[in-house]
Amino acid sequence: MQPPLLVLLLAFFLLPSAEAGEIIGGHEAKPHSRPYMAYLHIEDEEEESMCGGVLVQKKYVLTAAHCNGRSISVTLGAHNIRKQEKTQQVVLVKRAIPHPKFIKRKGTYDIMLLQLERNIKQTDAVKPLPLPRGKDLPNPGDNCTVAGWGQVTRRGPGSDTLQEVELTLQADLKCKRRFNHYNKNIQLCVGNPRENKTTFQ
């Protein structure tokens, strides 16, 4: 079973305002324990931004469609994104493939594949995470881990090091009652409103 990937997808796609990688109430990950994590540096006309992603094949990274831009570089094998580590591989994106039904203002189908300019070199610090099959989906009550870079407090600065937090998968009905836009066919319901643990502001 591959719950880490599934919940990473949630970090990208549940709320339109979410930036991938905001880990609230978690802790620093063990360096290079998540060799599939990708840090995206995005350049557009007049601004720069960052997102997280998941290496799913030697030449493909899965991320959110709102993480598109004129130029995207992907850093793999990183723990601290502000330091040059020997484990890091930086690869430019050759082609961005957003979901054809993606609507930015609604945040629906906020998923995208990035085709890298070249295959990555697989090492202990850089390895793809295979996508789960339908039979591998987690069930309510399962604990899943979310990982990423970004803010670790609601108004604080971003973290330079990879952070992670464990969240519990909830029954779809719990999110349906709280969020009108929740769609169980394309989203997962995770977290506990009584805990200060989340993946977004």
TrEMBL record:
Gene3D superfamilies: Trypsin-like serine proteases. GO terms for cellular component: cytoplasm. CDD domains: Tryp_SPc. GO terms for biological process: proteolysis. Pfam families: Trypsin (PF00089). One of its GO terms (molecular function) is serine-type endopeptidase activity. Transmembrane segments: none annotated. The keyword Transcription does not apply. Keywords: Disulfide bond, Signal, Zymogen. This is Granzyme B. Residues 1-20 form the signal peptide. Residues 23-201 form the Peptidase S1 domain. SUPFAM superfamilies: Trypsin-like serine proteases.
